[in-house]
Amino acid sequence: MRLKKFIAVLAIVGMAAGLAVGCGKSDAGDGNDKKAEASEWDASRDITIVSREDGSGTRGAFTELFGIEDEIDGEKVDMTTQEAQITNSTSVMMTTVAGDDYAIGYVSLGSLNDSVKAMKIDGAEATAENIKSGTYKVSRPFNIATKEGADNAVAEDFINFILSEEGQKVVADNGYISLDEAKPYEGSAPEGKAVVGGSSSVSPVMEKLIEAYKAVNDKAEIELQTTDSTTGMTSAIDGSYDIGMASRELKDTETSEGLVPQVIATDGIAVIVNKNNTTDELSSDQVKSIYTGETLTWDEVVK
Fold this sequence. Notes:
D-Maltodextrin-Binding Protein, domain 2; single chain; nine-stranded mixed β-sheet; 10 helices; transport; lipoprotein; alpha/beta; 23% strand
């Protein structure tokens, strides 16, 4: 009798243990399912809108090209939603979008890397070839500017190099659209220093141009300061920079202060999203709707 009771107790304990293990596996499975579900991109989530700071030439060109502006009292006003997160450089923009599954932003095409995904706009991929053919229309000039009457031999020679065949090859090799009919560089190799500063979008290609110029004139020192387009222009006006950089057209107020612009390249603006985003294409109107705050969630554009 005692033996039968003992066997019965063992059977009950075994069943209880089996149930416990079974429950544990079920819970673990539920947890894994929840994790898998959480990792899936959810179009019903809010869009994280990321924009550049005031003074950014990329922001100015972006809002103009996509019509994210309105005319109030005769002046164009940026209508970017107040809900947008503001970043102060190209690199921070890409880091921000790469770290948020639901973010959207924009960067210079030449600065684009594989940490984010560039969207097709109106059916066209953001490539240098499509910009050149006119298929991808979201593009703007890269300008440099000097103050009229400025006298810096190194700055003048460096500009001659930028516009030469050798300089324009650097432009093309770094993913930008080069100028046509550039001639071979014929420099005088002056000695001295020049300060170049402004747009963070122009800075990457300018850094490469400086490296290439030093290879042909090691007697010159070129200092590069990365700020923004507006600072680039105001600093060229007041003499802080010998050469200012702007990733947009110059304003009338800037040229009236004596700045002389020179286009050194054409660049596209890539609309970027997180690589987990399942969306591959947006229309210009959809981009505008997102940045003006009319479209709030991804499922409003993902059909």
